[in-house]
Description:
Residues 78-324 form the Glycoside hydrolase family 20 catalytic domain. Keywords: Hydrolase, Signal. This is Family 20 glycosylhydrolase. It comes from Rapidithrix thailandica. This protein has 364 residues and is of the alpha/beta class. The chain has a single domain (31-363), classed as Alpha-Beta Barrel (TIM Barrel), CATH 3.20.20. Helix content is 38%, strand content 14%. The protein has an eight-stranded parallel β-barrel, surrounded by five helices. It has a two-stranded antiparallel sheet with strand order 4-5. Helix 9 packs parallel to helix 12. The radius of gyration is 20 Å and the shape is globular.
Amino acid sequence: MKKIILTLLVPFLTSLLAFAQSTLPVNGFCIAAPSANKVDEFVKFIENELAPRGVNTLVLRVDFNYTYESRPELRGNNPLSKEQVKQLVKACQKHQIDIIPQVNLLGHQSWAEKTNKLLEVYPEFDETPHVKMPEKYEWPNEDGLYCKSYCPQHPEVHKVVFDLMDEIIEVFEAKAFHAGMDEVFYLADDQCPRCKGMDPAALFAGEVSKLSQHLSRRGARLWIWGDRLIDGKATGIGMWEASMNNTARAIDRIPKSVVICDWHYEKAVPTPVYFAMKGFDVIVCPWRKPEVAKAQVQMMHNFRENSTPEMKQHFLGAMQTIWSPAEAFLANYYGNNATPNEKGSQVECFKAMTDEIKALGKMK
Length: 364
């Protein structure tokens, strides 16, 4: 009996100790959901790496990698089954890790030469149908094509989007949903019969608000990337980590319940203060530079230490972002990739971020 009790208590105590050592409420990790044949391997990664490093929030970019029942036409190739998702959920629950599914909404409806599933199945939702996908993608290009967007004014698009959101929230037993919404370059296009001449800030804010309100009825909270809410010209940050297409003013029109994932990959830009002063909870997000990750963690720690209680509550923490497939990341992490395409920088960045959070926690 003692052995059984100890077996049950060890994971809980490990997670509790990691949380107690953390100086930030959120120690997060964001990555694409594993492919169906790699779920067991990913579960081991949760057990052996994420939990011991104190990670308490896992954002899984699912998109169309799930066996949707409400919209079977939007299933990707070899999607995760419901049973496999429950494996991931169970592993996270065992270690008190909040699991948050992501489906890219509004933007990122294509990549390189490929149209993603939503616009492939429902081409009528395309904001820019006149922009044809190239045989070989290059940037920059004459069409200004980075990724396609769906038109937020299309009368049928939210029937489909809400079905996806509802199903994915339910199967992941999630209290939050990440909608992406970064790098939206196609919005209020001058050839769109519905959006032409409209204010991009109003369109972006309207979509964020609509998604947030739908989630709130399900008892869930909306998370998004923060780049479209920063003025790229005024800050000098530019068109990628901030907006140059007039969406920044949307920040004053969206619900304060939205969690902002503030990604900056080259420097620890102090924009979390901007979001916090606007009343939003904010999380900093590094990628592949360990020194940037450490600086971001230290910055958030300092913000919390030197803020009023009203402001402190908004500085939630840090979340490592991974932009290679889960299998490729794990191969690099465990040194199993014979020809890595990068020097393990995402791996080193993740370790630097979690080590810094733990080190600052021990100083308290």
